[in-house]
Amino acid sequence: MFDMFGMMNKVKEMQAKMKEAQENLRHIQVSAEAGGGMVKATASGDRRLLKVEFDETLMNPQDKEMLADLIVAAVNKAMDEAGERGKEEIKKQTEGMLPNIPGLDLSNFGL
């Protein structure tokens, strides 16, 4: 017979684990570089840009467009890596909570 109360408790437990995992994402920091390390971006696991650093030689007005391109590249790379780390954290926190259902991917939940 189907245990409705057991299922509800399992859902509540999973919601608590998901919330905890989402809160932990902000503590994950990922850095990525572009232009051979001339630009570095740091993002959190919840996909927030935390810091952008760049080599001061890029402050030349003639290199303005290149600097912008390198910043975009470094930020996109950091965001991608932060997203992957976030998915790993969510998966780790919710592992074993639900049966393996083909096509059901909760790793993007809240990201």
Automatic annotation (TrEMBL):
<comment type="function">
    <text>Binds to DNA and alters its conformation. May be involved in regulation of gene expression, nucleoid organization and DNA protection.</text>
</comment>
<dbReference type="GO" id="GO:0003677">
    <property type="term" value="F:DNA binding"/>
</dbReference>
<keyword id="KW-0238">DNA-binding</keyword>
<dbReference type="InterPro" id="IPR036894">
    <property type="entry name" value="YbaB-like_sf"/>
</dbReference>
<keyword id="KW-0963">Cytoplasm</keyword>
<dbReference type="Pfam" id="PF02575">
    <property type="entry name" value="YbaB_DNA_bd"/>
</dbReference>
<feature type="compositionally biased region" description="Basic and acidic residues">
    <location>
        <begin position="84"/>
        <end position="94"/>
    </location>
</feature>
<feature type="coiled-coil region">
    <location>
        <begin position="4"/>
        <end position="31"/>
    </location>
</feature>
<comment type="subunit">
    <text>Homodimer.</text>
</comment>
<dbReference type="GO" id="GO:0043590">
    <property type="term" value="C:bacterial nucleoid"/>
</dbReference>
<comment type="similarity">
    <text>Belongs to the YbaB/EbfC family.</text>
</comment>
<dbReference type="GO" id="GO:0005829">
    <property type="term" value="C:cytosol"/>
</dbReference>
<feature type="region of interest" description="Disordered">
    <location>
        <begin position="84"/>
        <end position="111"/>
    </location>
</feature>
<dbReference type="InterPro" id="IPR004401">
    <property type="entry name" value="YbaB/EbfC"/>
</dbReference>
<protein>
    <recommendedName>
        <fullName>Nucleoid-associated protein ACD591_04415</fullName>
    </recommendedName>
</protein>
<keyword id="KW-0175">Coiled coil</keyword>
